[in-house]
Specification:
heterodimer; A: about 625 residues; alpha+beta; Thrombin, subunit H; Pdz3 Domain; outer membrane lipoprotein receptor (LolB), chain A; 3 domains; eleven-stranded antiparallel sheet; six-stranded antiparallel beta barrel; 9 helices; 31 strands; disordered N terminus; disordered C terminus; B: about 375 residues; six-stranded antiparallel barrel; about 30% strand; globular
Chain lengths: ~625, ~375
């Protein structure tokens, strides 16, 4: 111990202080550090939620917004159904309603009601967490807290990027944090906090063994970055699925991670990934082991698109891959209903530390208690729940869709009536283009020829112009979304959030507006999903209401037409169009004229004055 | 014991404050920014010297993995003697994911310590204190130290539950040395053979796979090796304990035959299992109450190989007395005095074969 003099001094001083012997000897830094720690725990405690699911038991949660959204585990709320009671550290009990579920990741989002100024904790960037970092859990182990004040257990981060096998196809803990802070039954769903009281994870699982279902210093938390990636989808009231690549990988004899099988129907296959290709990185993270790829995939929602780098014959290829879902929505619904009890893999640590029953901590979780009780909402929650297939609570989807709709409307007020929009400018190689959009017709003039479609009918006919994958149809829907609003355009729902790779950077980098804790630092943007006129489309919408892009699928399971707009003052100033692996063209939009409806109503003023813009 | 526990708790409270102070950017120890300057760096440095071991087992309650500590740049590893090592193919995975086959050099049955070897070069390792420096403090700057006092804060690094695979780092737990006491423990019905001092820890290290892990102080110096899963004789509670580094060093030198500790390493024949691996025989894993003593493999160049023993032989007698199970083989061998002639009778291809192995070697000696 000779070398550790300053540390020993601190220790000694601290021990003395704790023993109330000679407080004056304690270094001010130690006092300050202790004060900070106490304050961090006090802040975190306010955000801690004690969840009671009636007879079914309960667990913990953590508030992440002032309007009452709280994260917890799927396995905590599953027995509760739609409504639950939540206690906060001030001793007050609030009603809460189920908002969104991610059964695969064991995550649930609930919303507490009764205040619009709930105390909440910030989600930290869990990629910055290091082994050895101080951390603490605030939760309701063994449902001890009758006054709802959380129990605190402190420890260190024991491991990062751990992979814990799923039970069947659900409750997979990928890329999770391992801690030696005591995680006991009832801690499930509660926050794991860093030294500053920010959420680095949600505790949900622990390795148990022959000593029964109590802490043995090995707990696991879902990382805050995974939670952030799912939060948008969860807020939309969805029943969210996890991603699959459509390919499996294995470790080759020389240690490379190679594709061992791939579905020809997968996007990865269409983008060029083949059997025996070496996977180098995914979503901006290196892949050196099979576990590493599982870790990355396990934190991504189905439907996301992420960069993937692979190597073949020494050559590096970089592609953007659209990830499919692990389950069908029917399968997920069945799991939530408790119909498909997952099989526990043998020898696996118990995924479910919740006792669910007060005073009987050893009880296994009542997974099978899945028969849907009739939903009787307490008065405070009336009007906050709407069941719908494929969703957890459709009410919240409407809320989110309307929020995005309001943002779009505020960004760009549009003239009423059936005006024709005429966009003109130059293509990448300098030739002029001209696009006309009206309620009846869409037309594009390109050096290669003129194409037009009937905007009033089905949009899934031959995609026009040729090679674009359906640019005119995408622009027709874009115009209708801007004019009619999200609520009136076909069947439009809120999808969630996706990382937005700027048009120029797509395929080889990330946005300059880097956001913490997202793949490659890409910004997360809202997505609206529309089914209208026999096609499906997704709209990417920025915080300020600007429509960043449209992906349009004339037929499902084919490559979409991808349009990415660059924001200008009001209207977009540029547009990049991609289909499959090809850039169709880049359009520099020099002017957009909104023309009054033509008198004859047939020709739509197609030969209008916007010509001047192209010269 | 009570006092020790109370003291441990007091120090835990102090510990957290220091953690926060360190996270707040406090400089460590004379301004040196060497590893050990913060908990994160201490653990990262220590983890490079800890390996994941995979061998026999795989049945529930009998895991096929444990932990080891690198103690020489050339690839010597100390770990606990366990059924995991009852295999002719022990795999060792380093912190950076490199995988090596490991061979058993020998064992100290009293301390239940085994020494493995991998064919490495310039590996990160702990330097165990040489015999003449035990148990005094080594010079400043040398990584290992002698014993730490109760109340010392420590990190335990181990392959617990096998959660870390490939290049994933072993798990780190924090704790306090609650007491330094002689071990009185048992595993199942059997007494544990070691009776010397151990560190009793306040963190749960008696997890599957933890055995053989490193116990380090806050500067990253090795202070002990995590023991196997044992229960206290008096109370039956699971013990979280570690073998102090001086005992680890004595066991290691004894196995290598380089230390003055051959006596300390030799088992007490009345109570100790004698490990048949010392003869170069690897028996099938002892998974059942009466596991038939089939030979799994024979180490090249060992006494057993010289005597003509072969894999798949079934041992039926030791020095003419029948042995019905693996444990019976161990007991018979243990009952022999060092230097007594060893004669094994085996069934091979339906016939009886006698094999003379010469005098029983000293425990702890490399066969």
């Amino acid at each position: 111990m000779r070398g550790a003099v300053p540390l020993t001094a601190i220790l000694l001083a601290t021990s003395l202080a704790v023993g109330n012997v000679a407080a004056t000897d304690v270094a001010p830094a130690v006092h300050a550090a202790e004060r900070e720690r106490i304050e961090a725990i006090a802040r975190a405690s306010k955000a801690a939620v004690a969840i009671f699911a009636g007879e079914a038991g309960g667990g913990s949660g953590v508030l992440v917004s002032a309007d009452g959204y709280a994260l917890t585990n799927f396995h905590v709320v599953q027995p509760a159904g739609v409504a639950m009671k939540c206690g906060l550290s001030d001793g007050k009990l609030h009603d809460a309603v189920l908002v969104g579920l991610d059964p695969t990741g064991d995550v649930a989002l609930i919303k507490l009601v009764g205040r619009d100024d709930f105390p909440f904790a910030e989600l930290a960037d869990s990629d910055l967490v290091e082994v050895g970092d101080f951390c603490f859990a605030a939760g309701n182990p063994f449902l001890l807290a009758t006054d709802f004040r959380p129990s605190i257990s402190a420890g260190i981060v024991s491991g990062t990027r751990r992979y814990q096998f799923p039970a069947g196809t659900i409750l997979e803990y990928a890329d999770c944090l391992q801690v030696d802070a005591a995680i006991n039954p009832g801690n499930s769903g509660g926050g794991l906090f860093d030294a500053e009281g920010r959420v680095i994870g949600v505790n949900g699982r622990a390795s148990f063994e022959k000593r029964g279902r109590v802490n043995v210093g090995v707990g696991y938390a879902i990382s805050s970055n995974q939670l952030r990636q799912f939060l948008g989808c969860l807020k939309g009231g969805r029943l969210v699925d996890h991603a699959t690549l459509g390919a499996t990988v294995a470790t080759a004899d020389d240690g490379r991670v190679v594709v061992s099988d791939i579905l020809e129907s997968s996007d990865a296959y269409r983008r060029g990934l083949r059997y025996d290709d070496e996977v180098v990185s995914m979503a901006g993270r290196p892949v050196r082991t099979v576990n590493a790829l599982k870790n990355i995939l396990g934190t991504l929602p189905a439907g996301w698109r992420v960069p993937l780098v692979y190597r073949r014959s020494g050559r590096r290829h970089e592609i953007l891959v659209r990830l499919a879902g692990l389950h069908t929505s029917g399968e997920l619904a069945k799991i939530v209903a408790g119909g498909a009890e997952p099989e526990q893999p043998p020898g696996n640590p118990d995924p479910d530390p919740d006792p669910q029953r007060r005073g009987r901590p050893g009880d296994p979780a009542p997974h099978g208690a899945g028969k849907k009780p009739e939903v009787v909402l307490p008065p405070a929650l009336v009007g906050l729940y709407e069941p719908r297939n494929g969703f957890t609570n459709f009410h919240f989807n409407t809320l989110e869709r309307d929020r995005v709709g309001r943002q779009m409307a505020a960004r760009q007020p549009l003239p009423a009536g059936d005006a024709t929009w005429v966009m003109s400018g130059r293509l990448e190689k300098g030739q002029p283009f001209r696009i006309e959009l009206s309620d009846r017709r869409a037309m594009i003039d390109l050096p290669t020829g003129t194409s037009s479609i009937d905007a009033t009918g089905e949009l899934d006919a031959t995609p026009a112009p040729p090679g674009s994958g359906g640019l005119l149809a995408a622009l027709v829907l874009w115009r209708r979304l801007l004019r009619e609003g999200a609520a009136s355009l076909g069947r439009t729902t809120y999808w969630g959030t996706v990382p937005h790779w700027s048009a120029a950077a797509a395929g080889n980098g990330s946005e300059s507006t880097a956001a913490p804790g997202t793949p490659g630092g890409a910004r997360l943007v809202d997505v609206l999903e529309t089914a209208a006129s026999s096609v499906e489309a997704r709209f990417l919408v920025a915080d300020d209401g600007f429509i960043l892009g449209v992906d349009l699928w004339p037929t499902p399971d084919a490559d979409p037409c991808e349009v990415r707009f660059s924001p200008g003052s009001g209207w977009p100033e540029a547009m990049e169009v991609r289909h499959g692996d090809e850039v169709f063209d880049r359009f520099r939009i020099e002017r957009i004229d909104v023309e009054a409806p033509a008198a004859d109503g047939q020709n739509g003023g197609a030969e209008g004055p916007a010509d001047g813009g192209t010269t | 014991m009570n006092a020790g526990l109370m003291r441990g708790m007091t120090v835990v409270r102090g510990w957290m404050i220091v953690v926060v102070a360190l996270l707040g950017g406090a400089e460590g120890w004379g301004g040196a920014k060497a590893w050990g300057a913060s908990p994160e760096e201490t653990i990262a440095g220590a983890a490079r010297r800890v390996v994941k071991l995979y061998g026999a087992g795989g049945v529930r309650g009998l895991e096929a993995y444990q932990t080891g500590i690198l103690v020489s740049p050339g690839g010597h590893i100390v770990t606990v003697l366990s059924t995991v090592l009852d295999s002719d193919s022990i795999d060792c995975v380093l912190d950076d994911g490199r995988r090596y086959p490991a061979t058993l050099l020998g064992a100290d049955p009293r301390r239940e310590l085994a020494v493995l070897s991998i064919a490495g070069e310039d590996l990160p390792c702990y330097e165990l204190p040489p015999p003449d420096q035990l148990p005094t403090d080594p010079a400043e700057g040398v990584v290992p130290v002698a014993r730490v006092a109760p109340g010392s804060r420590v990190f335990a690094l181990s392959n617990l539950f096998g959660v870390a695979v490939g290049d994933e780092r072993v798990s780190a737990q924090h704790g306090v040395v609650s007491a330094v006491v002689p071990l009185e423990a048992r595993r199942g019905a059997h007494e544990a053979p070691y009776r010397g001092d151990v560190y009793i820890l306040d963190c749960t290290t008696s997890n599957p796979g933890s055995a053989g892990g490193a116990l380090v102080d806050w500067r990253g110096r090795l202070v002990g090796m995590l023991g196997k899963e044992l229960r206290a004789t008096a109370t039956g509670v699971w013990l979280n304990y570690a073998l102090p580094i001086d005992e680890v060093a004595r066991g290691y030198r004894g196995v290598l035959g380089t230390g003055p500790d051959a006596e300390a390493a030799s088992p007490d024949p009345d109570t100790l299992p004698y490990d048949v691996t010392l003869l170069g025989v690897v028996l099938v894993s002892d998974l059942l109450d009466k596991t038939p003593p089939f030979v799994e493999s024979i180490r090249d160049g060992s006494v057993a190989a010289g005597a003509g023993l072969r894999p798949d032989d079934l041992l039926v007698a030791v020095n003419g007395r029948s042995v019905a199970s693996r444990s019976a083989v161990q007991q018979r061998l243990a009952a022999l005095a060092d230097g007594d002639p060893v004669r094994l009778t085996v069934i091979r291809d339906g016939g009886i074969v006698e094999c003379d192995l010469g005098p029983k070697p000293l425990a702890g000696r490399r066969p």
